[in-house]
Design a protein that fits this description.
With 386 residues, this protein is mainly alpha-helical. The protein folds into 3 domains: 163 residues, no CATH class; 106 residues, no CATH class; 65 residues, no CATH class. It has 21 helices and 5 strands. The strands form 2 sheets. A 3-stranded antiparallel sheet has the order 1-4-5. It is globular. The structure holds zinc ion.
C-alpha cells in the first residue's frame, strides 16, 4: 500500500480504527496488504489479530501519530493495564517491549479479540460530523457498561463470521446489539455508570501511578477497617467472599465477570493479598477500588497518603512547600520554552521532557495550562474543522 494520505486521529480512537481509516484513504490490493504496509511483514492473515510492530507503523506513517511509545499510550489500552494490572499480554512472548512484541491489533486496541463495543449515538454523531465513525478505547475497557458522553448503555458490535478476519470493520459496518450484558441495566444504572467512570478515569490518567507496595498496603488497610482481616493481618476468606459477592453478584451472569465472581475466582482474589506483587485480573482490581475507595481519585489519594507515610523524607518535603508563586513562574517558563522550540508541541512529549513541570501545571495551574497548551487531539480536531 502506497501511503499518500493519513487521517486525523479522532478523540480516544483505537489503533485498529486509525489503521482501518488509513487503509480507506489509500489504495491497496486488500486489507491484509495494508496491514503488512503499516505493521510489517507477517504470515498472519487475520486482520483483527495482525501482529503489531509500532516502530514499523511510525516509520510507515512518517511519525504523523507520534513515536512508538506515544502511539502505544494514545491508541491502545496499554497504559490502562499498566495502571490497573492484569494485561492480556502478561504471558509475554520473548520479553520484548509491547511496542514491538507483535501483539495482535485487537488485543492492543480492545484488550481482547472478542471485545467490540460501540455507542449508537457516538456512531450517529461521528457519521453526521465526519461521514465515518471510529472505535473508542473507553468503550472497550473491562468495566465499560455505559457511554459516558451520551449516558447510554454500550452495545456489542457483531459482524458476520470471519468478516473481521479478512477486512477492517468500522462500527457502522457492524450491527450493534442490545442487552448483551446480562445485567438488569435499569436496576443498577447508577453502579454501572460509576464503574464505567472508574475504568475511564484509569484510562485517561496520565500522571505517575501508585507503586505496588502502596497499593497493596492501602487495600489491606481498607479491608482491615471493614473487619475483613484477622488479628494477624490475614484475609478472612469467608467474610471477604460474602461481602464481595453481595456487592457485585448482579454481574456474575455477564461473561466478562463470570469467572472473576465464581467461588474459585474469589478464592484466587483473596489469596492474591498474600504478596504485594501478585497478579490480579483487571476486573478484580477495578471492583476492589470501587468497593474500598469509591473512585479512582479516592484510590489515588489513599495511595499518595500511604507513600508519604512510608517515606518520611517526602513527608518532610510536603511540610515545607516552596513558594507557590515562584513555582508557577518556573514551571510556566519551562512550558513556554518547550513550546517555542517545537513546531508541533505535544503534551505527551512535554510529559517526557519535563515531567515535573507537566505534573505541576496540570495539578496546580490547570486553567493556564489548558489555555496555553491545549490537548493535541483537540487542536487537531479544531484545525480540521477550519
Ligand atoms: Zn456515545
Amino acid at each position: 500500500m502506497q501511503i499518500n494520505f493519513l487521517p486525523i486521529l479522532r478523540y480516544d480512537e483505537t489503533l485498529y480504527s486509525i489503521a482501518a481509516r488509513t487503509r480507506l484513504q489509500n489504495a491497496a490490493r486488500d486489507d491484509r496488504e495494508a496491514c503488512r504496509s503499516l505493521f510489517g511483514p507477517s504470515s498472519n492473515i487475520r486482520i483483527a489479530e495482525f501482529p503489531v510492530n509500532l516502530s514499523r507503523f511510525c516509520e510507515a506513517t512518517g511519525g504523523h501519530f507520534g513515536d512508538p511509545r506515544e502511539v502505544l499510550l494514545g491508541t491502545t489500552l496499554c497504559g490502562f493495564f499498566e495502571r490497573i494490572g492484569g494485561p492480556p499480554w502478561r504471558a509475554a512472548k520473548w520479553r520484548r517491549p509491547v511496542e514491538t512484541a507483535g501483539y495482535g491489533l485487537a488485543t492492543l486496541s480492545n484488550g481482547n479479540v472478542n471485545t467490540w463495543r460501540g455507542c449508537p449515538y457516538c456512531v450517529e454523531s461521528d457519521l453526521s460530523t465526519y461521514g465515518i465513525s471510529h472505535w473508542r478505547r473507553a468503550h472497550q475497557l473491562p468495566m465499560a457498561f455505559f457511554c459516558l458522553i451520551h449516558h447510554t448503555p454500550l452495545k456489542l458490535s457483531i459482524a458476520p463470521n470471519n468478516d473481521r478476519h479478512i477486512r477492517f470493520l468500522l462500527p457502522e459496518q457492524t450491527t450493534l446489539t442490545t442487552d448483551y450484558w446480562s445485567v438488569n441495566i435499569a436496576s443498577y444504572e447508577g453502579v454501572l455508570v460509576r464503574l464505567s467512570k472508574l475504568a475511564s478515569d484509569a484510562l485517561f490518567y496520565i500522571s505517575d501511578i501508585p507503586d505496588l507496595t502502596s497499593s497493596h498496603a492501602v487495600m489491606l488497610r481498607a479491608l482491615g477497617s471493614r473487619g475483613i482481616l484477622t488479628t494477624t493481618g490475614k484475609i478472612r476468606n469467608e467474610e471477604f467472599a460474602a461481602e464481595f459477592s453481595q456487592r457485585y453478584s448482579f454481574l456474575k451472569h455477564n461473561a466478562d465477570f463470570r469467572e472473576s465472581l465464581s467461588p474459585e475466582g474469589l478464592g484466587i482474589l483473596a489469596r492474591s493479598f498474600r504478596r504485594a506483587n501478585s497478579w490480579r485480573r483487571p476486573q478484580h482490581n477495578l471492583l476492589l477500588i470501587d468497593w474500598l475507595f469509591g473512585s479512582w481519585q479516592g484510590y489515588l489519594e489513599h495511595c499518595m497518603w500511604q507513600a508519604v507515610m512510608d517515606c518520611p523524607g517526602l513527608a518532610k518535603a510536603e511540610m515545607n512547600p516552596p513558594c507557590p508563586a515562584d513555582d508557577q513562574l518556573i514551571h510556566r517558563r519551562v512550558c513556554l520554552e518547550f513550546m517555542n522550540n517545537r513546531a508541533l508541541p505535544l503534551r505527551s512529549e512535554f510529559f517526557l521532557v519535563a515531567r515535573t513541570s507537566f505534573k505541576w501545571l496540570l495539578r496546580n495551574d490547570t486553567k493556564w495550562f489548558d489555555l496555553n497548551f491545549p490537548d493535541a487531539r483537540c487542536t487537531a480536531a479544531q484545525a480540521h474543522l477550519f
